[in-house]
Amino acid sequence: MAGKKGRKSGAQLEFRNTALSDALQTQDMAAVAFALRHGPTVVPLMRPGDRDNPVDAGEVWTYRDPSTGDLALLLFSDAAFKPETLPPHVALQSPAWLRTFVTAHRDDIATVFFDIAGPHPMQASPADLLAALDA
Asked: CA–CA separation, 36 vs 17, rounded Å?
């Protein structure tokens, strides 16, 4: 029993998609699309989801440009790349969740940024992101 307890407490959920991080490093659009279709994306949250409610994914944080009012969705390949100035909570979301979220809000979102603070940022339109997810 002690061995199981030690393993459980030592296990940590990794908030990253290594394939996406690698694709962003090379700026390879085909590899970015593949990574988005086959792995999770780190999403900043205003409010984390309720662990006891599996349908509560939390409240996604978005950036609204104060001068234009444009809304940007910020996504990350690794939680370590999220600037500390953003809310502290993140979620690891599936490709299906990302497709559903962007589809529901594509008229409101002006742009999508990946790893906006680096090390290898990339920007896409919601339409380009959906095309990558559907390719």
From this structure: 9
Yes or no: say if 8 and 43 are a contact pair by the CB < 8 Å rule.
no
pTM over 0.90: no
* pLDDT tens-place string over residues 24-74: 999 999 999 999 999 999 999 999 888 898 888 889 999 999 999 999 999
DSSP string, 68-86: T--EEEEEBSBGGGS-TTS
* Angstrom distance (rounded) from CA 36 to CA 102: 13
Determine what percent of the chain falls in helix, strand and coil, rounding each to the nearest 5. Answer: 40, 25, 35
Give the integer Cα–Cα distance in Å for 20 and 65: 26
